[in-house]
Design goal:
- Helices cover 12% and strands 49% of the residues.
- The protein is built from three helices and eleven strands.
- Strands 8-1-2-11-10-9 form a six-stranded mixed beta sheet. A five-stranded mixed beta sheet has the order 3-6-7-5-4.
- A hairpin with a 2-residue loop joins β1 (4-11) and β2 (14-19).
- Mean pLDDT is 88; it is low at 141-146.
Length: 146
Amino acid sequence: MSGRELMAFRIGAQEFCVDIMAVREIRGFTPATPLPQSPSYVRGVINLRGAVLPIIDLAARLGFGTSETSARHVIMVVQVGQQAIGLLVDAVSDILTVSGDAVQPTPDVASEMAKSFVRGVLAIDGRMISLITLDNVLPALESEAA
């Protein structure tokens, strides 16, 4: 069986990864235009080649507090269902190829909120990398669309 390819990235001192098939592009940080009445983790929107792209501060969405942005931050453009969204992260580190059994289940000590994002944990070369699922990154938009 061939391995899955995952895009690894950092938020603060923590490493996360997502399925590389969801990642459309990686771009430099662009300040977003704020949207009124949006959740604290929604930075706003940017113009991506004529399309409006919502920017999610992934640190804030995962409960780590709002990111202090700098020019070093990057936006990972990902596809979640029919919606393209930009995820604000500190840095993209590398592409990992893992076998299915490399992903350990999320520990029972994790909160329900954490479990709604973290599909599993990878222990690779002394690194602990959380595999996150993008399905719940935009719960407000999903429930409005439903």
